[in-house]
Design goal:
45% helix, alpha+beta, 344 residues
Length: 344
Amino acid sequence: MCVCLEEESLTQIRHKFVTNYNCLVTSYAQTRAGFVALALEKNRRAIPFVEKAKTLKVLASNAKEPADLIRFTKIRASLLTAAGVSDKALNHLTEQDKDKAILGLIKNFLEPAGENFIDELVYRFLLIRGDSMGGKMRNIAGALGEWRFTRTLISTLSVQAKDFQYFHSDSQKWFRGNSYAPDIEQKVKGLFWKKNGKSKTLVYNMKVPIINKNVDLCLLDCNPDGLKKSKKNCLIHDPEKYFALGEIKGGIDPAGADERWKTANSALERIRTGFQNSSSVPFTFFVGAAIEKEMAKEIFNRLKRGILANAANLTNDNQLVDLCEWLIDLQGGSGKTVAKQHAS
């Protein structure tokens, strides 16, 4: 727990693990651990590409010379990949076009490689696949952050002996939760629980009609059935059903921390402005992995002024668990006064 270095009263802040802005700053050790976790996840996701390349090498080794490969129909898709043809491009090419692409690969790159043409094929396959994988990797830091938040929230519910349900991203269905299920957090796009008879549903990346924008974390006063009704009757249109709305930024690179905070802060400002004329205003909160000193000062200042109801560093267990407890216990909003004062 941080020791308070400021004499200013923090009565507006209910977060016991954030007593000054330094508590929010991501340490070097936490940054380093985040980069290591990111590297390990990248390597884990690269396994299917490496294994496919090994298989391609075995099957392609049956060719005595590069020209033979055009007849190897079993590896045709991989030959096209090595030729630089993307998955999207395949839908716009005829079989004759695909043959030309493979023949171009053979003539321009495999034949000049001589007896090493199989290795050349595998290298080019991995190069092209690695490039497409790189696009998917750009969002991996955000995914890791969301998974960490979800796992902590599930664990907090479990420790409190609270049953929960979760919305499965693939099947698009709600299931009874099991806190011991491995990797459950990777498929969660919604959570439901009850506290003191109050139903709460947390929905990820949901478009909030009142502001007509997506919000990372939306805590609503309803059960999953309230989200299944027709668009007109869906409870997401009712401002009074929102307990809290938050932004989460899982990127660990300090170089992009300030821009991520600016994006999140703009989204939170938009929420407060959009709800200011409503009868009920949801609390707003922020969770971030990379929090630099100046950014921490801004966040802490908003906490002191009551503009932000809560904030946590994603790499800090104490802060994250405390924020999850707050979400679980939250009985209803109201940043109404603060939102109106801030807007004015």
